[in-house]
Amino acid sequence: MSDDAVGGERSEPKTDPGASRHGNFMNYYQFHPAEERVRQLPHGVWRLAHPARKYAGLDVGCNAGDLTYVLYDFLEKAMSQDQPEVSLLGVDLDPMLIERARERNSRPDRVAFECLDFLSEDCGETLTRYLDRFGKKRFDVVFCFSITMWIHLNHGDDGLEEFLRRACALAEVIVIEPQPWKCYRKASRRLRRANSEDFPLLKGLKYTGDPARHIDDIVTRLCGFCKIAVTESNDWGRELLIYERKQQNCPTDR
Ligand SMILES: C[S@@+](CC[C@H](N)C(=O)[O-])C[C@H]1O[C@@H](n2cnc3c(N)ncnc32)[C@H](O)[C@@H]1O
């Protein structure tokens, strides 16, 4: 199932997905159950470097938090040998989604949510303040699940580059789930069908056709990260690209 089959910002029947400008669907997880999303994640790539066993993650574009909570459980299990103290921060630009995420928070000591536009000026300051609590300069992992298309459509090629540069600057490991190009066309079509203005930057995009390839090039060439894993596509055709900060040379292509 693609994003095309997701209910929209307004409540509409499941067969008639609504239009969304930023991907801030209110019922996203009815269509993309969060538990299924972590099945593709490998277990061996999460490293605990902090002497006090503190492991901090960032979930960019966390929507209503369902996936953030599942990622928290996943990380605790995947690193259970090290018994880390996992903390996760979810950020999203939609205040209603952040309110929903906070309402259901059963681990407020470990999971937090902030309403932030990741490309805004004040975002960096909030994230630095969060990291200071753990004595860290960067997050151990930054998750970017199904957000790159919305950034790309709203901020263009330069915006996508800026988004990935910022995310990489904050990350030791970054996990990206890019949307395929057909989803761009569907998102545009849905806006037009809803008599809303199309994404003004769509026609001028140069990074077209295979967004994952462009994202891979930006993350490895411009941001200097090494690819450490690519998962199989999930049942709605999305693979996860996983990279880590370059220590010396990247190991040969995986
Ligand atoms: C399609 S949803 C994906 C949600 C979640 N990451 C997942 O895959 O389950 C995309 C989310 O990104 C958020 N988003 C879009 N642009 C954003 C930005 N500039 N800063 C923060 N969040 C953003 C939207 O509000 C939306 O909740």
TrEMBL record:
Gene Ontology annotations for the cellular component aspect, listed alphabetically: cytoplasm
One record GO biological process: negative regulation of pre-miRNA processing
EC number assigned by the record: 2.1.1.-
GO molecular function: O-methyltransferase activity; RNA methyltransferase activity
Annotated ranges, domain Bin3-type SAM: 1-248
Region (Disordered) residue spans: 1-23
One protein family per Pfam: Bin3
PROSITE patterns: BIN3_SAM
Domain of life of the native organism: Eukaryota
Record's signal peptide: none
Keywords: Methyltransferase, S-adenosyl-L-methionine, Transferase
InterPro entries: Bin3-like, Bin3_C, BIN3_SAM-bd_dom, SAM-dependent_MTases_sf
Family: Belongs to the methyltransferase superfamily.
PANTHER family for the chain: BICOID-INTERACTING PROTEIN RELATED, RNA 5'-MONOPHOSPHATE METHYLTRANSFERASE
Record's protein name: RNA methyltransferase
Species whose genome carries this gene: Harpegnathos saltator (Jerdon's jumping ant)
